[in-house]
């Protein structure tokens, strides 16, 4: 029979158990976690640059997981991202045209049938909330002076996440 010895909590352990080294706990840094996530997301499908197809969604998201989830948590922002992704790299969209597109989607009508009140509300939310947020994370390039929007470096990755989540949720 082995002797029992008290440990730091007052509980008794066998001498044989105490002689074994404690289990090693691996603590991953945030950088290592982001690197692992990048490999996971980057490995889902080839990027647009690897396929030479500019219409191919690049699954790489150049954002933290929390930021990506926060940006995608708002329905209007998801619609902005999808509308901007549809543009060719050299194209841009005016804030007014984007407001008409979003209004038509929200009201289920033609863009020219959206009420002035709705357009004003959407334009205000675009200018004061959504576009500056998306621009701050390189999802879009928002030119405040010209009132235009074009694709940023993270838009394709977020579109890929929207498509993946929508497919998994059956939408």
What does this structure look like?
It contains 8 helices and 5 strands, in the order ββαααααβααββα. It has 171 residues and is mostly helical. The protein has one domain. The protein has a 3-stranded antiparallel sheet. Strands 1-2 form a two-stranded antiparallel sheet. Strand 1 and strand 2 form a beta hairpin. The longest helix is centred in the last third of the chain and has 21 residues. The chain is globular and about 35 Å long. The chain starts with a strand and ends with a helix.
Helices and strands, with pairings:
Elements lengths: L3 E3 L5 E3 H4 L11 H13 L5 H4 L13 H8 L2 H11 L7 E2 H13 L8 H21 L3 E4 L4 E4 L3 H15 L2
Antiparallel strand pairs: 1-2, 3-5, 4-5
Briefly say what this structure is.
With 171 residues, the chain is mainly alpha-helical.
Summed over residues and divided by their number, the pLDDT gives a mean of 76
Structural class: mainly alpha
- Radius of gyration, whole Å: 25 Å
Biggest sheet record: 3 strands, antiparallel
Total count of strands: 5
Q: Strand order within the widest sheet?
A: 3-5-4
Q: Detail the poorly predicted runs.
A: 1-18, 21-28, 40-55
Span from first to last CA? 64 Å
Oligomer: single chain
Residue share in helices? 40-55%
Strand percentage, roughly?
5-15%
Number of domains: 1
Order of helices and strands: EEHHHHHEHHEEH
Number of helices: 8
Shape: globular
